[in-house]
Predict the structure.
Amino acid sequence: MSFKGSSLPLALITGGANGIGLATARQLAKDGYDLFLIDKDQANLEVAVAELKQSGKKVESLALDLSDAVATEKAIIDLLKEIEVDALVNNAGLGFARTVAQTTLDEWDLTFAVNIRAQYLFCKHIVPQMIARGGGAIVNVASAGALVGLKNRVAYCSSKAAVVGLTRCIAADHAMEGIRINAIAPGTVDSTWIGRILADDPDPVARRKMMEARQLDGKMGTPEEVAYGIAFLLSKEGRFVNGSVFSMDAGLTAV
Ligand SMILES: NC(=O)c1ccc[n+]([C@@H]2O[C@H](COP(=O)([O-])OP(=O)(O)OC[C@H]3O[C@@H](n4cnc5c(N)ncnc54)[C@H](O)[C@@H]3O)[C@@H](O)[C@H]2O)c1
């Protein structure tokens, strides 16, 4: 029992109000999970929760800015007094389009705060709870940019490479205690994020073509495709996958 009064497993998803996180919430509801969503985007979080409740699953949420480490750690500790987490999806993330010299200290710190420090905090507190209950599954959302250098993404790629290190070390330490943890490394995914990048570009058509061309078949992924990968990694069918970096990038990192 994960939510009091429910017999279903519970998945906690960060960044669940939009994009890949929301698609994952929809997939996991179909797969039989109750859901707890965390996001700083309160408006879309409320819309997501209302929609997901139509699945008949129990869905709760918390509006929280994960760049605030003190508030985040307190929220996690308080939450774990109320819920037991069977599946954790560390998905919230952000990025800036900058070279190393262009990246400000604030941009670097914010990128690392959300993309990796928040993942560490959720793992730090949820892994012991999972171990005490016999185990659990975690997916940390990384990026193809963890595996190859992308132009103008220096803080983003660095933080996503750290996600891979966090994931592998937790697998090494806790596999024997029933923890399965994997990183997923998507290529370019047509999410709300990409929509924002295109909207800000003086030539969105050319930019979209450039982004599409990075995948070997010339097409972006969809949030739903990545959600399916995350759901597989969390499922019992994914038992033999641990400490991996699961690429879903239409070959972006293959050549
Ligand atoms: N879209 C892509 O091409 C792509 C590729 C590889 C990896 N990813 C990764 O996938 C994950 C999801 O990205 P997406 O494409 O769905 O983007 P998105 O912008 O559509 O969704 C990201 C979500 O994270 C939330 N978030 C951001 N900062 C937050 C903070 N400080 N506190 C709480 N919530 C915060 C946002 O509100 C949003 O709901 C990210 O970790 C991203 O790095 C995306």
